[in-house]
Task: structure prediction
Amino acid sequence: MIGKLSASTAGPLAGASFFDQVKTDGGKFVLVAAQLALVLLAIRLFQVENGFGFQDILPLIFGGFVVHAWLPESWRQPFFVGLTLAGIWLLFGLVGGSWLIGIGLTMIGLAHLPAPMWVRVTLVTAVGAVLTAFRAGWMQTEWSGGIIAILGSMFMFRMALYLYDMRSEKKPATLFERLSYFFQLPNIVFPFYPIVDYITFRRTYYDRDAYEIYQKGVLWMLRGVVHLLMYRVVYYYFTPAVEEVQGLGGVVLFIVSAYLLYLRVSGLFHLIVGLMCLFGFNLPETHKRYFLASSFNDYWRRINIYWKDFMMKLFFYPVYMRVRHWGNIPALVFSTVVVFACTWILHSYQWFWLQGDFPLTTVDGVYWGVLGVLVAINSVWESVKGKKGKSLSKKGWTLRGALGLSLRTVVTFLFLGVMWSFWSSESVGEWWSVMKQVGTSGAPEWLLLAGGLAGLYVVLVVLDVLEAKGWSPFFEERGMQFSTVASRTGLMALALAGIGLPQVHERAGEQASTFIASIQESRLNARDAAIEERGYYEGLMDNRSYTSQLSWARQEEPPEDWAPIMETDLVQPGEGVLVYELKPSYVSSFKEAIFTTNTFGMRDRPYTQAKPAGVYRVALLGASYEQGAGVPDSSTYENVLEDLVNATGGPVEILNFAVGGYSPLQNVPVAERKIFGFEPDLVLYAMYSTEERRMLMQLENIVQEGRETGYPFLQDLIARAGAKAGMEASEIRALLKPYGQEILAWSFERIAEASRERGITPMALLLPTTRETKGIDPVWAKILTDLAGRAGFTVLNLEGAYGEHDTDAVQIASYDQHPNVRGHRLIAERIFAELNARNAFAPADTLQVPE
Result:
């Protein structure tokens, strides 16, 4: 323990009888515990950061705090370590958890061998090399998949700081101080973790009154939740897909939203540090009003402060001391450049441990390079003007100073927004295709932007005036009495938890209730959903941003052979918009399930082309959900549906013409050239809220490859859009986007018209994806229903097809959203019930859903 703690600081059992402490601290404990319960309830109601099991340890956090707060001083750190180990076993199981703990203890033990430092560093590095092999997938075991990312998060930077600081350790740490530094409870559910400094970790442990630390922890957790909910609002509602950006307004939204998405990181770090405060670790702030940075150096000091301190400690100062004989300014510039070059490399190193990739991209290099140069220039300027700056600061606040500061803040915010929009783009070309939209804007848009910037400037000046007068609008716990902080925090936590209750927000009106419900779940926005779609169909999954939900959507990596259908041996080249087709009479394995095609190239039973007498035939058009991925041949919902129908009536044959990756573009020629030779009585078209996105993606590929579509309408539309081969993919998408609904309408009309000409009923099924267990996107549900209805389809909305099951229960894997066997069964039962209610399979007019 560092220093002797006073009775008030150490807690209930230090320096006084238990009953005396209950009288003294009992009220504070009840206040803090009640607030914590409300914050945890809000976390549960809003499903905050549930990707890695955070929700699973909420009872452990609350129960652990209650017990920990009343333990004797000497028991607290052992209890915290024990609580962390219990959480590890709870989340990773006995085997996986034991391996995680065992490897961690081994690395700590190697750091303490009675050997020269270089020997210890070498041995720790050797263990790291073995873990690297596991993380890269070169070596695998049953237990490695879930724990390597957590091990990397615990040790990749913390061990470097630990070894660095051990050399100058004035007072040896206790065993449990060392263990608690590595085995921090929040770290087991948050792999993306702040780099906690070892000396700071020890120094700040119970360095002030215990209940002040606990109260700070609850407040910071609440701030973290608020930041994360604000992130969801920006992410869901204000972050446009690249192809949707139009004009100056769209570009500004693209830039500002990219920067505001950093709320995810600051929210996460506030939540983590707040959790640590609950157990006496009074860690300092990780972020400080970073959106109000007034220069690049100011930004570097305010954002991710732990990272800045880490880089300064291990890189800047050692380098500067070695080259300071060059002179102050050359040494300053060189050291700063080294720091940002190392930041680029270490960013990729961190990403490797978290996600398994090591992306050294042009976008990353340019971002960190430009930022490093700007900080270096800013550092030189501050170094030269330092004395003048100090003399001015002594004069105190002036209106002129506030005006200048606010102007610098606006300019810095805009520039950093541009930088963040660049860093969050998939490529330089994509980012530039968005920026070019500025050139399509007229004077009114520029005047509106100028007015918005002027308004922001005025707001910042007013904030500065209020701060100078001591009327800060920001809620800072420092300097406030415990009761004041507790009452404010408690009221905010109560309000947030109350809003999260359906019984409360449903009374606020339909729009407000729908909005609140929408931010109570973690999902992908339009931009990331499009990236994921392209990632599945084209192998382009490459989103490296810590602020993107897509970056954390997959907890596991798919096997190496887990490829989209068009990259397997199951397909052969097609013509025109049919870029590929399924091979006929072929048997293979697809996503770990047997995949069989019949003589006509359908994943289906061996039908004859001529319709047997008395059989009612249905032709099913669709994509990967209908074709089936990762499920056996007999488990696709088309096969299950056919069995349900024939078990109670029939005979009915449902012919599956679906192919993974197909969109309305491909289903037009499939309908016109393939299905009618089989004499169907009913055409079923399965459509999803992703219909336009998949279609534009396919058309984008066709344009890039310079393929002829075979349809004059499509060729004319591509020409009208100005899309050409050789353009950046994002630019082609942006050009084609305005024509999306026109192409959908054309596709639906071609299929419906071809069906009606032959006396066949066209019917469309609006189905939910496994990501839409709580409801189909209402905007696209209406658009698709209207377009298909006008084209002549009878539309059945099958929302709620998965019943009460959530996404994880109905998809084949965490990294693949296609329905599993249960999902297919639920879809088949829902379609059967709807068609049966409409007597769709005439003459079988007495069909019932079997028990």
Summary: The longest helix spans residues 73-110.
